[in-house]
Specification:
single chain, about 0% strand, cell membrane, YihY/virulence factor BrkB family protein, membrane
Length: about 280
């Protein structure tokens, strides 16, 4: 018990030191900026794939809607719908290459942040490092699709089976309770892959678990907390006018970036500790 307490104390001290040394608040602001630039290209790719997937249009943003503040969600939906309604032809052509490249900028910024956490330089060539970022971008697209498909078809299959026994209402209550767990598991898998593959360090998959657990719980709690605060205690539209929604979106992205970077620092701490013990 005492040893565990010492580890936690060392971790907290390291995190506090790293927050100042690595300028994590400033790094999070940079990452939030790249997230903003990457968000809409990523969603455009998802919506471009919509005709090829048996997924209802309203469900495409379901997972984001569960956690994002209302004002930020309205801004995302409005802009994505406007872009998709005014696009010239299908994006599943050469145009998608530029879209994927733009979407990968956010992942590329995460790679740099993780390398800083592990105190390593990017020794991979530009093509390889950008290829990793693009690969992880495709991975995120797959995770988003999985996050959409599982709830939609899982609910339909469950309703079909439970209706045979007359337990439809009971299943709906159970599904509503389990939907948060499903979202948490999907987020955990996404963060695990990100922390495992992104850094320029050879890692075991399980070594990314501590940061992935922290990022999953931290992102869910902070997103719900921010959404509750914005919805009940603050009205950014009155303070900032028409750009209030953009302010809320940037705050959400900044908090998300901060949590993701801290998760990388946690994994780096345990990686260094295990290497020292060996």
């Amino acid at each position: 018990m005492e040893k565990t307490g010492n580890v936690r104390s060392s971790l907290l001290k390291l995190l506090w030191h790293r927050i100042e040394e690595d300028d994590i608040p400033g790094l999070s602001a940079q990452l939030a900026y790249f997230f903003l630039l990457s968000l809409f290209p990523l969603l455009i790719v998802l919506f471009t794939l919509l005709p090829y997937l048996p997924i209802p249009h309203p469900d495409m943003l379901g997972m984001i809607k569960d956690f994002a503040p209302v004002e930020a969600m309205d801004l995302i939906e409005k802009n994505v719908n406007e872009i998709m309604n005014h696009r010239n032809g299908g994006l599943l052509s050469f145009g998608i290459i530029g879209t994927i490249w733009s979407a990968s900028n956010g992942i590329n910024a995460i790679v740099r942040a993780f390398n800083k956490a592990y105190n390593v330089k990017e020794s991979r060539s530009f093509i390889v490092s950008r290829g990793v970022a693009i690969l992880l971008t495709f991975g995120m697209i797959f995770v988003f699709i999985l996050a959409i498909v599982l709830p939609v078809f899982g609910k339909e299959i469950g309703l079909f089976l439970f209706s045979k026994f007359g337990y439809t209402s009971e299943f709906i209550k159970l599904w509503n309770a389990l939907s948060w767990l499903v979202s948490a598991i999907i987020l955990f898998l996404m963060f695990t892959g990100l922390y495992w593959i992104a850094p320029n360090v050879k890692l075991r998959c399980r070594s990314s678990f501590p940061g992935a657990i922290f990022a999953t719980l931290g992102w869910i709690i902070s997103s719900i907390g921010l959404s509750f605060y914005v919805g009940n205690f603050s009205n950014y539209s009155l303070t900032y006018g028409s750009i209030g929604a953009i302010i809320v979106l940037m705050i959400w992205l900044y908090i998300s970036a901060f949590i993701i970077i801290i998760g990388g620092e946690i994994n780096a701490f345990y990686s260094d500790r295990n290497r020292t013990n060996c």
